[in-house]
Amino acid sequence: MSENAIGRRQALRGAGIAAGGVAVAGLATATPALADSGGGLLGSWMCVRQDTGSPDKIRLVLSFAGGGVVVSHDISPAGPPLTGTWSSEGKSFRLTMWTGQAGDQGPDSVGPTIRVRAWGSVSHGRLTAKYQVTVYAPGSETQVVDSGTGTVTGRRITA
Fold first, then answer.
1. Digit-coded pLDDT (tens) for 51-97
2. Quick one: the chain helix, strand, coil %, rounded to 5?
3. How many structural domains compose the chain?
4. Which CATH number fits the domain that encloses residue 63?
């Protein structure tokens, strides 16, 4: 990696998810959100993600909105939010989210960008998914400096 690249653990931890591991468990009772055309995904989910090969479990909130909008935010430990798009077919879904990080020269310097792609399903009130994280070099849309995979599980957040 170049001196401008960030460490693997920092990049993958900052990636969030699904964002971004993306597996979640939901309500056992019917709600209006479960009747949506997105296979029961609409709304927010309290999740736990785990990067492959790491013992760390990261808590996050994963939110699916109408129009294909998805937001993921690591909350413990805290990390930057990821935003992107999602689609579903039946109980299965796919999503792509992005975030960025500050560069090595301070908060105003160009840093790496991070893409998270996830695929999963909702079954028996649970959402489960696998994800792939790709970290791109600062200022590049093609130069990959790191990557990783993981899983997510969780439950729907009720109002």
1. 999 999 999 999 999 999 999 999 999 999 999 999 999 889 999 99
2. 10, 55, 40
3. 1
4. 2.40.128.30
